[in-house]
Amino acid sequence: MIESTAFTPLKKGIQTIKNYVKTLPNRPGVYRMLNAKQKVLYVGKALSLKKRVANYALPEKFPNRLQRMILETTAMEFVVTKSEVEALLLEANLIKYYDPPYNVRLKDDKFFAYIHLSDHFYPRLSKYRGDRKKGGHFFGPFVSVGAIDEALIMLQKTFKVRSCYDSYFKARKRPCLQYHIKRCSAPCVGKISSELYHENTQQVKAVLQGKTQDVQYSLKDQMLRESKSQHYERAAILRDQIKALTALQAHQSINIPTVRNADFFALATLENQVCIQGFFYRNGSNYGTHSFFIKEASQLPDTEIFSLFLAQFYADKESPAQIFTNISLNDLLLLKALEERAQHKIHLLTPQRGIKKEVLETVLSNATAALERDHLSRKNEQENLCKLSDVLSFSSPLERIEIYDNSHIQGTNAIGAMVVSGLKGFEKNHYRKFTIKSTDITPGDDFGMMREVLERRFKGSLVKDTKRSPLPDLVIIDGGKGQLSAAQEIFDKLDIDTPLLAIAKGPKRNAGKETFFTKKHPQGFKLDQHVGLLHYLQRLRDEAHRFAITFHRAKRTKAMKKSLLDSLPGVGAARKKALLQHFGSGIGVKAASIEDLQKIKGISKKLAKSIYSFLHSS
Q1: HEC assignment per residue over 238-279
Q2: Above 70 in pLDDT, residue 248?
Q3: Which helix (H) or strand (E) holds 519?
Q4: Which of 371, 386, 414 is the last residue of a domain?
Q5: Which of 46, 78, 381, 491 gives 496 a disulfide partner, CB atoms 3.0 to 4.6 angstroms apart?
Q6: What secondary structure letter does DSSP report for 174?
Q7: C-alpha to C-alpha distance for 61 and 65, rounded to whole angstroms
Q8: Domain for residue 118, yes or no?
Q9: Is the pLDDT confidence value at 88 over 80?
Q10: Looking at the structure, do residues 405 and 482 belong to the same domain, yes or no?
Q11: pLDDT-derived band of residue 65, with 50, 70 and 90 as boundaries?
Q12: Across 97-181, where does the E strand assignment appear?
């Protein structure tokens, strides 16, 4: 036996991250960290997704704020990009869209910002906020201060255009620090001719207008001319500018100047699995991505899969005027249906060249990466099921597990929940909810509630429809010996031979100290030597708990919203409506006197006394 290791919530977050690291590539990209409610906690960029995400498995490197983020992390999502610069720009878009609580945000970052090239004789390049009434040229808007700062640094290093205020520029007698660190050409003291400086500012303008490639070609021609003239120092400067502009090219792949509103979709397949990846552009910026895994589609042609997907996807969504796909779709019926639903002209396009084709290639690479991650995730699920089967000494591997939990507050709004996990992970279409109905159960009787839930599951309509709810290979319940006995009692009564596993929380609810009980092991056992399997079982239990709590909260909220007037004797829908219209709310009705109540049409003196007495009784 190895020494027991407590699985604190922080360690669970670390283990979640480690599981993802196994499937990630050494490629640039953007990652999102999500909590149990699927809320985006953090958006980050990386030159290598694998290396960057692996760092989060060492929380001692991070401040307390980010350690809390790791503790809350239950899932992650990824987008692979062509370069780190592209990842930076996408990160900026997603931070603006999701507003994650753990991303550092400047106080003034809620306003759009621009890059400004002033109309001075020696134009100044700077970050600008405001109404844009000022002269000069504005480029943007940008949704992130960080994205603007990165772009400005790159442009200043490449073209050495000044960033100082006009008053500072006018007062200079010698070059400032920006000149010495090679971010300015010092036009203030004549270190560059006005003609060359103006040429540099024109190139800056062209780059910010999306004409980076044209500028590169021009610089390349200049570099060759300078080299032939043996002006090697000038040729080297031009060479460095070309190299720097290559990094800026990624801007075109994330925010497309020529596309305001469009959706990009790419279909990829891997071992009979189909994934369609979507990139969604609104107002010229990429505001989100999503991977769609298509079931029961491996035998269909790709064009048919795509048409069926688009028809379903836009069934309840407004479609943009342009939809780009990596497979040409000549489906006139689909196009007509989409246009009729959207009430505007729609173009289904498959670009063959240019920036839109490059974006589709990025979308396709992300679809492939999502399939690879899904494949590895399924493999991990199968390994966990086999390992659990071995530990429990079953004769055959597990394929379907059902996990049960109850929720209530002092016996009120009592519910039961069932979640299902199998070879593909959690199967949410098989989840079930149970409202506790028995009046014989004492409020707060967890054993009684578990008996009712299991009896309804294995005796009611669910058990008769094996296609809708196949019988499980294992049932897991949250609890100890008592819960196991209550569940076994029902199984014996119904002659069910499905094995049971109970998970009892550790002392002081300490995760990692759980004790497990089965019919063959009534005294319980621990999984000190199987930490990975322990984490897997905790994940199953926690999902059942999350599902139960979510249902219980919804039920409780609905009960709390129920008006006090619903229980008034002798008051139907019409009188209730009249009371609310006159007094505004249930509280207003309760504050009214008998005389005030009598003024309402349909409320007699006798009924007014009855209402008043009911509302003011103990």
Answers
A1: HHHHHHHHHHHCCHHHHCCCCCCCEEEEEEEEECCEEEEEEE
A2: no
A3: none
A4: 371
A5: 491
A6: S
A7: 12
A8: no
A9: no
A10: yes
A11: confident
A12: 113-117, 125-128, 137-142
DSSP string, 555-566: HHHHHHHS-GGG
Type of residue at 545: H
Tokens of 7: 């699985």
d(CA 492, CA 474) in angstroms, rounded, equals 15
Nearest to 421 by CA among 410, 411, 431: 431
* Structural domain span for residue 546: 400-559
Residues 273 and 418 in one domain: no
Q: Do residues 14 and 61 both lie within one domain?
A: yes
pLDDT value at 431 more than 50: yes
Cβ distance 479 to 504 under 8 Å? yes
Domain end marker among 98, 123, 138: 98
Cα 224 from chain centroid (whole Å): 48
Distances (CA, A) of 574 to 512, 603, 611: 57, 11, 15
DSSP state, residue 367 = H
Please state the three-class secondary structure of 276-301 as a single string.
EEEEEEECCEEEEEEEEEECCCCCCC
Does residue 82 sit in helix, strand or coil? coil
| 553 and 461 assigned to the same domain | yes
| Tokens 């019919």, residue located | 519
- Give me the mean pLDDT over the 97-126 stretch: 73
How far apart are alpha carbons 567 and 582 in whole angstroms? Answer: 18
Are residues 299 and 359 part of one domain? Answer: yes
Residues 555, 577, single domain; the answer is no
- The mean predicted confidence, pLDDT, of the chain is 82
Q: Where on the phi/psi map is residue 72: left (φ > 0), alpha (ψ -120 to 50), or beta? A: alpha
Taking only the tens place, the pLDDT of each residue in 370-391 is 888 888 888 888 899 999 999 9
- pLDDT mean over 314-333: 84
Contact assessment for residue 312 and residue 293, using Cβ atoms and an 8 Å cutoff: no
Q: Say which range, 159-168, 233-242, 514-523, has the weakest mean pLDDT.
A: 233-242
Identify the residue whose tokens are 């980010």.
Answer: 66
Q: Which range is least confidently modeled, 274-288, 430-444, 479-493, 551-565?
A: 551-565
Reported confidence tier of residue 557, pLDDT bands at 50, 70, 90: low
C-alpha–C-alpha distance, residues 184 and 182, integer Å: 6
Asked if the model's pLDDT at residue 618 lies above 60, the reply is no
Do 494 and 457 form a contact (C-beta atoms < 8 A)?
Answer: no
Handedness of CA 514, 425, 386, 373 (dihedral sign): negative
Report whether 349 contacts 322 (CB < 8 A): yes
> Any idea what the CATH number is for the domain that residue 313 is in?
3.30.420.340
Residue 310, helix vs strand vs coil = helix
- Crossing angle of helices 64-72/9-21, nearest 10°? 70
Region 483-505 average pLDDT: 90
- Where do runs of H (alpha helix) occur along 473-592? 481-493, 531-561, 573-583, 586-591
Give alpha helix (H) positions in 404-527. Answer: 446-459, 461-464, 481-493
Per-residue tokens: 101: 């609580």
Helix 232-248, helix 145-159: angle, nearest 10: 160
Alpha helices (H) along 392-480: 446-459, 461-464
Residue 229 lies in a domain: no
Structural domain count, the chain? 4
> Percent of the chain scored above 70 by pLDDT?
85
Q: Strand pairing partners for 400?
A: 422
Categorize the per-residue pLDDT at 348 as very low, low, confident or very high, splitting at 50, 70 and 90: very high
Average pLDDT value for residue range 161-187: 88
